[in-house]
What does this fold into?
Amino acid sequence: MAGPRGARPGGPGCCWALPTALLCAYGFFCSVRPSEPFLTRYLLEPHKNLSETQVFNEIYPVWTYSYLALLFPVFLATDYLRYKPVVLLQGLSLIVTWFMLLYAQGLRAVQLLEFFYGVGTATDVAYYSYIYSVVDVELYQKVTSYCRSATLVGYTVGSVSGQVLVSVAGWSLFSLNVISLTSVSIAFGTAWFLPMPQKSLFFHHVSSQPFSMEMKVMDCKNGAAVQDQPSVQRTPGWEDETKVPLNVEGSSAEKQEQKVDIVKVLKDLWRDFLQCYSSWTMLCWSVRWALSTCGYFQVINYAQGLWEMVLPSNSTEIYNGGVEAASTLLGAVAVFVVGHIKTSWTMWGEVALALFSFLIAAAVYIMDTVRNIWVCYSSYVVFRIIYMLLITIATFQIATNLSVERYALVFGVNTFIALALQTLLTLIVVDARGLGLDIFTQFMIYASYFAAISLVFLGSGIYNIIRAYRRQEQMPSRSPESH
It folds into this structure.
């Protein structure tokens, strides 16, 4: 019986399909949560005995604080434990979250629920990084697109099914939460069958000869993944970075797993951190990414609360699920389109970010001031589409020239900065211990926030464009002198 010619043990055609399929199944079922678009309405139902002030100013902020507190230790634990245990922890935390949604009563219990949801969000890093430890580097683009598509499809299926079950079948929100609990339980069961990786990005290296291929991937929240192509012109001002090969299979018997030295790994991470952010271009684009993501998190966290205040759901039918599904799908289409636009994002990227931030500010302002639910829904869809375009451009500029290790480090740090800014904003604006502002005043502040960063982006973009044109004008004038 002849096997495939040219196939080598452990090669790209070997043993990648099963873990990829299992991980995609896990991501799909984790994302099928039909009750999520109706969370605010559910918490404000009489049987929960919670007031609007408690939900908006005392319960929702707990997610932000817990996510920030857990992000860095979970990031390290994920790599140290080699992904699978943290994937299981995510599944378990989501089960606890939805079980408590069904039966928890009172302010403290629901705040604890938000903490477990923060655990589930912080451990998302394990899902997105697990696959890089079990497949060859040349398959990274393919399997990344599969995993991200699975979560996108799952979220869309959950949102649409939730809307249909509420609007057409007349199901209660309690029943939707039962479906969500069942779905995340299936995901948890699926995760047990994932193979245990033998290596990881930082703590469990496998020594091997240098390998020329590396992954440069763009991550767009709630969007798609795009791989940087070698033909794309590299961004000026970037430092040349050492590409550290990961999961490279070969015939050499010299591969040996290194002993874990936590102190050495932390020192290496700190050295990489300093080297990455010593690039002014990297630092600027990372700040833009973090500022935009901070505002985005804040708006999506409290959008349901705004809709509830504009049109109380206990007196009418709402379409939160349909709006979430539409904004996700249209945003994914927009990301796909912008990924194929051939332009110099190095020169025009900041101006594009300024324009997009201004449009986001306008959408949030309209959402806040025009007290019509359909206008709110439409503005929210526009908001999410534009944000996905904005963050795709910023991510592209950051991810260019980054190996997988530095990609994980840089975007982990950038996410931490975004959450730190969001925590500060939450403490001042939302938290009952701070100003504890009402939802309409909050959204006016968020609109002002995006307007302010649009002015910053615009000023920086115009300055860089003028400097680039001056540099081009000086080049012809110098060329005759060289003859």
User: Anything to note?
Assistant: The beta strands are 217-219, 225-227. The longest strand covers residues 217-219. The longest helix spans residues 439-478.
